[in-house]
Every structure is written in structure tokens, then in C-alpha cells.
Design goal:
Layout lengths: L12 E12 L2 E12 L3 E5 L6 H8 L9 E9 L2 E2 L7 H7 E4 L11 H6 L12 H14 L3 H4 L12 H13 L5 E5 L7 H14 L4 E5 L3 H7 L2 E6 L2 E7 H6 L4 H7 L5
Parallel strand pairs: 3-8, 3-9, 6-7, 7-8
Antiparallel strand pairs: 1-2, 1-4, 4-5, 9-10
This protein binds adenosine-5'-triphosphate and magnesium ion (MG).
Adenosine-5'-triphosphate (ATP) binds next to strand 2 and helix 1.
Amino acid sequence: MPPTDASPAATRTALDVQDLSAWFGAQPAVRGVSVGFREREVAAIIGPSGCGKSTLLRCLNRMHETVPTARVEGRVLLFGTDVYADGISPIALRRHVGMVFQRPSPFPTMSIRDNVAAGLRVRGGGAPSRAETDRIVERALRRSALWDEVKDRLKASAIGLSGGQQQRLCIARALATEPAVLLLDEPTASLDPISTQKVEDLLYELRSEVTVVIVTHNMQQAARVSSSTAFMLAGELVEMAPTARLFTAPADARTEAYITGRFG
Ligand SMILES: Nc1ncnc2c1ncn2[C@@H]1O[C@H](COP(=O)(O)OP(=O)(O)OP(=O)(O)O)[C@@H](O)[C@H]1O
Ligand SMILES: [Mg+2]
């Protein structure tokens, strides 16, 4: 999807969400959310359990519609192109807008190398050559700060890795298709502090290359990794602001109540 937005590169919006609502059956989970995620920023989404963070995230790369009763209204523009327009392939879209889930989800029967290469099959123009695949796998593993730990066992099973390594492997798998946007849904929730630190360091490195949207329950993590933070409540976006401001001088009393621990 080529960029169509003519605004200066530094301020371009990668994902422009317009009046987005999402349902499971008759039950609304996201209500009229409008929000923009800028190119090459790390944005965090916080809010109490069940407020619709994961659902919003899953609408951004059309994962929501994989739930049978799910429905979406509104628009999501990726560099100006509506990802819900006729003729947009959700599979192709997910190459541009990659996703990593809470629990590490490597393909258990595949090697480390093949896990990273798994998304390449759906790239336009057929599968890359073996040498090209090796090059892409190495680059993705280097970008996800895992290369040095796995370079001597690329053919070994991915389930022999630690949880933190598996999560970085999943990030490498998402990066292998060179996405413009990376969606992370509580990526460190099941990790120990050292692995969490590695993933956070990685996000810091990636911020100059991709747009990252991270859902987290950990407000300290949001404060550490993101430049802007969105607060959601009961399916609605309450506010989005530069992270430092949201945590020190939120505009909305509900945000203040949440960040000071008065509910959630
Ligand atoms: N597969 C599903 N089928 C039906 N309802 C669902 C499904 N997934 C989520 N919901 C409902 O949609 C609403 C939003 O859920 P969502 O998972 O987006 O919240 P969340 O903010 O990510 O919560 P958490 O912090 O616990 O992960 C909740 O009311 C939830 O019960
Ligand atoms: Mg969730």
C-alpha cells in the first residue's frame, strides 16, 4: 500500500482510525473511536480489563472479523488507504500491519528459521529463494535482538526457546514481512523482568523504523516505551495525549482516576 498522504514525513499519520465501532454479536466492544497513530512512534493503549483495547487493536489489521459474530463500522486508513475497502486482502494487510499476542505463539512444529520465514509465503511474487529467505531471517532476528542467541540453532524447534526468546521470535516473524505498523497486545504479560526489559529495549530500537501500537496493563511500561498514550474506558477512547502529559496532567477526570489507581 503506497503512501498517499502528502503531509511532511515527520508528522505523517500511519494509521488514521475514524469513528470505529466493533461488536461481538449485538454486544458493542468499541464505540466510535477516532484516533491517529503517527509514523514511527510508539503509542500505548491503556485501560481497565474489558474496555476494548484488544478489540480495537484487532480491528486495525482486520483480525476482529475472524471471530464469526464480529462486526466493524467506521474507517481505518493506512497511509490514506481504507483497510476495509473492497478489494483489500486481509492477508496482505496483515503483512503491512503485523501483530504479536500476549502469549508467545511460535508454530510448535517448525524450526526457529521456518517460524521467522512463515509469513513470507504470503508475500506478493511467490516465496523468496532459499538464500533470500536466509538473509531476511537473519535481518529479522537481528532486529528482534535474538540473532546472537539462536544463530547456531536455526534448525532447532522453536519450542526449545525460553518464553522471552519465543516472544522475540514472534516479533521477528512479524518483522520479517517489513510491516509499516506493529501491533503488540500485552507482549510482556507472560514474561519475566529480564525478558520484559529485552522486549522494551527492542521497542525502543524499533521506534525509528516502524509504528508500534502496544496494549499494556502496565502503566510504567507505557511510560517507559511510548511517546503517546491512549486511555480507553467502556469501549470509548477517553483521551490520547503525549505520554508524559497523560500521566502527569490528564485532561479528563476519568483518566486521572485510573492512573491514580482509583479504579481498574
Ligand atoms: N471473542 C469474544 N466474543 C464475545 N465477546 C468478546 C470476545 N472477546 C472480547 N469480548 C468482549 O468485548 C469486550 C472488550 O474485550 P477486549 O478483549 O477488547 O478487552 P481488553 O480491554 O483487551 O481487556 P483485557 O485487558 O482483559 O485484555 C469485553 O466486554 C469482552 O467480554
Ligand atoms: Mg486484551
